[in-house]
Amino acid sequence: MTVSSLVQLRLVWCCWTLPRWQMNGHKRSLAVWTSATAKWTLKQKKLAELYRIPVSRPPILSGTSLLGKGALSTTSISPKEVMLTSERYGVQRLPFSHVSDSDLAFFEHLIPGRVITDPDELRLFNVDWLQSVRGCSTMLLRPRTAAEVSEILRYCNKRNLAVNPQGGNTGLVGGSVPVFDEIILSTALMNQVISFNSVSGILVCQAGCILENLNTYLEELDFIMPLDLGAKGSCHIGGNVATNAGGLRLLRYGSLRGTVLGLEVVLADGSILNCLASLRKDNTGYDLKQLFIGSEGTLGVITAVSILCPRKPKSVNLAFLGCQSFSQVLGTFTTCKGMLGEILSAYEFMDDKCMKLVESHLKLSKPVTGSPFYILIETSGSNSAHDEEKLNNFLEHVMASGLVTDGTVATEDKKIKILWSLRERITEALTHDGCVYKYDISLPVERLYDLVIDTRARLGKTAKNVVGYGHLGDGNLHLNITAESYSHSLLNAIEPFVYKWTAQYNGSISAEHGLGFKKKHYIQYSKPQEAVLLMQQVKAMLDPKGILNPYKTLPASS
Amino acid sequence: MTVSSLVQLRLVWCCWTLPRWQMNGHKRSLAVWTSATAKWTLKQKKLAELYRIPVSRPPILSGTSLLGKGALSTTSISPKEVMLTSERYGVQRLPFSHVSDSDLAFFEHLIPGRVITDPDELRLFNVDWLQSVRGCSTMLLRPRTAAEVSEILRYCNKRNLAVNPQGGNTGLVGGSVPVFDEIILSTALMNQVISFNSVSGILVCQAGCILENLNTYLEELDFIMPLDLGAKGSCHIGGNVATNAGGLRLLRYGSLRGTVLGLEVVLADGSILNCLASLRKDNTGYDLKQLFIGSEGTLGVITAVSILCPRKPKSVNLAFLGCQSFSQVLGTFTTCKGMLGEILSAYEFMDDKCMKLVESHLKLSKPVTGSPFYILIETSGSNSAHDEEKLNNFLEHVMASGLVTDGTVATEDKKIKILWSLRERITEALTHDGCVYKYDISLPVERLYDLVIDTRARLGKTAKNVVGYGHLGDGNLHLNITAESYSHSLLNAIEPFVYKWTAQYNGSISAEHGLGFKKKHYIQYSKPQEAVLLMQQVKAMLDPKGILNPYKTLPASS
Fold first, then answer.
1. CATH architecture group of domain B76-186
2. Contact A530/B280, CB-based, under 8 Å?
3. Do B280 and A474 touch (CB under 8 A)?
C-alpha cells in the first residue's frame, strides 16, 4: 500500500479543491477519496468570522474578557423577558433574610465601589446564558481577595442572607444564577496569577481567572491548561473547578480531580480553608479539596486554585472524518486508541443534524459531506514527524477497512481552529434553533447513540430537532432537543424518559454539566438514596444554614 | 552527530562488556562511553534471583499470592519479638469493648471457617512488614462479600468493637495492623474480578485483588493497571485505594483520584454505599468516593473498585543513567520532559548510597558505576521505532550537554525487569541494613535532595546510613535512615527536624505512604488547623463511635 505523504496531508488546506488524501494505488481510493466531495470554500470567508465564538455574554464588569458583546444577540429575547425561575418552576423561597439598607452599608464599607445594585447592570447576572432561568437578585458583590470573601460570608451567615457564587456564568443547568434574591458573589475581580513553576508545571491563580487567558499566559511559557471547553473565553477557573468541568482534553489529561492539586476555599461561616498545595502528591489526611470540586458552590466559595499543567504540544493535528454508521464511529474509536495511543488528545462525534444546524444558523461549512456521522480526532505530541506518521497509518487503516468514508486533516493552527469551531459552536447553533432542552449523559459507549434514536422516535414531530454529539472518548453524549418555544408538555415527554433510559444502562444523568437548579430532582436516577443522604449530611455539616447557592445540586432533606 | 542505531541500543544486553552506546564521532564519546565501566555480569546470575522480590510477607491465607515465604526472612527477628506498639509508643487503649465468646459465636455463624483466632496464625497479621509496630488482635475475619462486611460492621458498631481493615499489609506507616486488640478485617478473600470492558478500559473488581494479579489479568487483554509499585505482588487494590497509593506510573497515568471511577464502601454502621460507577464522567452531586480514597480505612471499608486502565504499551524502554550532581539530575528531568514528552512513563532517582546497599545486601550489580546519582527513565508508547528514536535523540542530547556521564538502555522485558529491581528492591535492602526510619516527602523538585544532605550532616555518625531516592518526576523523595537498632534518641534527632524542614518549603510530610499510626501527630506540618478540624468533623460524621482503624491518620479531637 502506498502511503500518502505528510506533505500531501498538509496540502489539503492549500489545494482545497484537489483530492484530499492521495491514496494512490489503494483499491478503495477512487470511490472514497475523490475530489467530488471537496466543496468547502473556507478560503473565501474571513477567518475571524470562523473562529471560535464566545458562548457567554460579555462579562462587562470583569474587564479581562477577550469577548465582544455579540454573543448575547444570539437570541431575540432580552434577559428581562425570561420568565422568573420561581414562576416557571413554582419554587418556594426559603426563609432567608432580605437585603436591608444596613446590609448595603456594610458591603459598601467593606468593598467600596464594588457593590452593584443598579437593576440594569444586574440584569445580565440574574439570567443564565441559555436564557432559561432568571433570578431577581438586587445586589452583586465583587471582592478581590479571599479575605474579602471571608468577611462577606461571615456577615451573610450571621445575617442569614443567601449567596449565589458566580464565575463566568456559562453554566447550562441553572446553577450559576440566583433563583430568588440571593446576593450574587462574583469572582470576576479575583483574576490574578499567583505563581507558575516551569519545572513542575504547577500554576497557582485566583478563582476568577478566565480559562482562555490562563491558557494564553501558559502558552507563552510553553505550557497549556489541562482542560479546554467551548466557553473558555468567559468561564472562570474557579467555576470550572466548582463544576468539575470536563471538556475536550479530558480524554488526554484526565479529570480535574487528578489535575487540581490544591484549593483555597472560603466556607459558609467565613473561615478560610487553605489547601492550596503546589505538590503533585500529598497524603496527609483526607483530601478535603475534593469535597469542593464539583459541588457547584454549595459547600464553599473557591477563591484560588493550584493546577498541574502539561507541556504545550510541539505538534497538533486534527482530522475531520465521515462515518456511515454509529458502529463505524465506535470501531474507529477502538482502532485509534490502539494506533494513536499516547498522542490521541480528543475524540468527538457529531451527527449530521448537528452539522446542518451549524451550517444553517452560523453559515459554517463542513469540509466533508454525505455522512450521517462525523468525527473530530485530535492528536498532540512532541514530534511532528512521528505524530503525522502515526496519524497517516491510522487514516489509511480506517479507510482501507471501510470504517471511515471521507475526511480531511488540518495541521496548521488557524485551520485547526476553524475545524474545531464546527464542534464548539454547536451549542450556539442550537440556541438559534429555538428553545433548547439540554441533556448531558454518560453511558457505556456502545449505547451512546441509541438514546438519541429512541428520543427522536418518542418525540416525533413535537420536537423541532433531536441531535446528538459529544465526547465519545469519554462516553459522554450531549443530547439536545429544540422546539419553537418552551412547553411543559414537551418537557414532560422528555423527562423523566431520558433519565429512566439512562438509569437502565447505569449511566449518569449529568456527565459534566452538574445538577445545578434544573437537574437536582433527578439525582436518584444516578445515585442511590444512601449516597444522597450522605451528601445532605455533608452539606449540613459545612453550611448548616444552607446559605450557599440554595435550591441547587441536592434535593431538600426530607 | 552520528546516532547510535536502535540495534546497537538493543545490543547492550548481549555484549555487556562492549561499549554500550556507540557514539562514534562525538567529541565526548571517548571519555564518557568507554567500556571501562561495563562490569556487570548479569548473565552469570540466574534470572529468577534478580527478578523483583516481594516486599511483603507471604499472605498465607489468601491463596492467591504469587509470593513465596522468603520475604519474611529479610530480617532476623520474628514477629513475636517486635515490641508492642502500645509499649514502644506509650499509647492508651480507647474504651472499646473486648471480643467476647458470644462475639466469636456470632462471627463463626456469619462466616463459618473464616474466623481466625489461632495465635500462631494471627501473629503475621499483627505485625507490619517493616516489623516496626505490633498489635495484639485475637481475631481475624475473612469475609467474601460486601454483604458480609456489612453484617460484620453493623455488629461491631453496635457492640462498640474496634476494627482494623487490612489488605496486603504492605503499609509503611503502621496503618495496616492493629495498635491494640482491634478485630482484623481482611480483604484477602474478596479477590474476584467483577467485569472488564475492553472498549472503555474500565475494570471493576473486589477490593482484595492483588495488584500484580490484576495487571497480569489485564495484560492478556492488552491493558495494564494505571499504578505500579514495589509491593505489587502482595498489596490489594482496595488497600491501594484506601491509601491513595502513588508508585512508579503516577507520572504518566496520574493519581488514583483521577483513575478510580467508582467505589463500593461499607460504612461504620454497616450501610453499603454503592458508588461503583463505570463511567468516565459523572457530575451528579458530591463525589463521595473521594472521601474514602486515601482515608486509610478510617471512614469506611472499601469492598470493590472501578478503575480506568490504559492500553498496554506496545513498546517499553528503560534507561539507567549516571549523573555527577543533583543539579544534573534536575537538568536531565527538564530535558526529558521536553524531548520524551508523551512517552515518558517514569523518572526515578537513586543516590549512590542506595545503590551500595542494594549491592552489598542483595548482591545486585548496577550496570553503570562511578556516579553519585543514578536515574531510571522509562518510556512507553505505541510505536517502538518512534519511541526509540525519541529516546536516542534525548540520550545524545544529555550526553553531549554533559548532563549525563554514563548509561545503558534496556528494551527487552527481562532486562527491563532486572534494571527496575535495582530501584524497587531498595526498600528491601534497607531492611537488611538494620532498623529503618522512613520518610516520604513531597518537596519542590529543586529542593528535593537538600533534605538528604542536611539530615546526613545533622545526624553524623549516629546514623548508619542516610540515603535518598524516589519519584523525582512527582517531586517525591524517599528519605531513609538506618541504624543498628531502634533508638528513641536517634528518632528525636530526626523528628520533628525532617518535618520542620519540609514545612519550611511547603512540602508534604507524607507524599504517598499516608499518616497511618506513625505520622498522625505530625499532620500539622502539612495541613492547617482548620483543615484538621474539618477532617475530624468528617470522621465524626461517618464513624461517630470511632470504631474504624482507631489511633490512625488523625490526632484525637481536642
1. 2-Layer Sandwich (3.30)
2. no
3. yes
